[in-house]
Amino acid sequence: MKAILMTSPGSPEVLQVHDVPPPQIRQARELLIRLKAAGINPIDTKLRQRGTFYPEQMPAILGCDGAGVVEAVGSGVQQFRVGDEVYFCNGGLGGHPGNYAEFAIVDERFAALKPSSIGFTEAAAAPLVLITAWEALYDRARLEAGRKVLIHAGAGGVGHVAIQLAKLAGATVCTTVSTPEKAKFVRQLGADHVIFYRETDSIEAVLNWTNGEGVDLAFDTIGGQVLSQSFAQTAVYGDVVTILAPDSQTDWKTARDRNLRVSYELMLTPMLRGMTQAQQDQAKILRQCAHLIDQKDLMIYLNRTFPLAEAAAAHRLLEMGSLMGKLVLLTEP
């Protein structure tokens, strides 16, 4: 099969097309998936730059997100049959091969039926951002109706999903963007208040919006100084959730003074630690989101697609930053 191999850490040029043997079913509950598309996420570019979580296992096939058709099933598979259309977040961290390829092996417990109302490209763009936003808002922050929520970078991959999930929970949503085009986009998703962070003091803007109190929940999808800003933008006893590691300049004093509950969201933890039940819980999230997508209550914005052979070009575009929505590799010609 054709696959994109990462032969060593480095620039996007380390991603090259190779012919490799197709994967084989080795466990009773495994599915062989003929991939139609693979989502591209910032974790892919970070692993390409610095090396994977399993540097001793090289070369590697990146790509956590995939969507395709069940080609074959193991002897113990119960939930799926040949021909089913599925989507999932599995592999791509340097151990289990990822989805920048024509075929993949996935444990049936970690896959979900693809939303029937969308194509494989949108489905492949969805899993990691759906799970990340869902866990951050609903599990980490325990979001309830009537809360005021700040979502940083609302037009981005995680951000545009988070806006929709927050609105579905009955929250009032404020978000930050950089351009009028993005402002229009997030308003269409349901954002109630939009802040142009390049032109405005975002801390002051949030405090003005909340009559000086701050939001009940701030969701940091950017990291760096934005985490410290989030502390200053959040009400006393509020929640801050970040998907990035804090840096050495993080203003922990403000977080303490405000008695904030600070949570981390890394949806890769179950995969990295082999936590089977947690991975099954994430597949349940995908099933719930598939229902929301098919009901037209949730959408995934697909920015652009690339042929499999142009994975390097896709990485270069993602690394430029400021993208709306998601990028996807088409794994079939």
Would you give an account of this structure?
It is globular and about 60 Å long. The protein has helices at residues 42-50, 120-125, 127-140, 157-168, 180-189, 202-209, 225-233, 252-257, 269-273, 276-294, 311-320, and strands at 2-6, 15-19, 30-40, 65-73, 85-89, 103-107, 111-113, 148-151, 172-177, 193-196, 215-220, 234-242, 261-264, 302-307, 326-330. Strands 3, 4, 5, 6, 7, 14 and 15 form a seven-stranded mixed beta sheet that branches. Strands 10-9-8-11-12-13 form a six-stranded parallel beta sheet, sandwiched between helices. Strands 1-2 form a two-stranded antiparallel sheet. By secondary structure, the chain is of the alpha/beta class. The model has no long low-confidence stretch (mean pLDDT 97). Helix 3 packs across helix 10 and helix 6 (202-209) packs parallel to helix 7. The protein contains eleven helices and 15 strands. It is 32% helix and 26% strand. The chain folds into two domains: 2-126 and 268-330, Medium-chain alcohol dehydrogenases, catalytic domain (Quinone Oxidoreductase, Chain A, domain 1, Alpha-Beta Complex); 132-264, 3-Layer(aba) Sandwich (Rossmann fold).
Main attributes of the structure:
Rossmann fold; seven-stranded mixed β-sheet; Quinone Oxidoreductase, Chain A, domain 1; alpha/beta; single chain; 333 residues; 2 domains; 11 helices
Brief summary of the model shown:
The protein is an alpha/beta fold and 333 residues long. Helices cover 32% and strands 26% of the residues. It has 2 domains: 2-126 and 268-330, Alpha-Beta Complex (Quinone Oxidoreductase, Chain A, domain 1), CATH 3.90.180; 132-264, 3-Layer(aba) Sandwich (Rossmann fold), CATH 3.40.50.720.
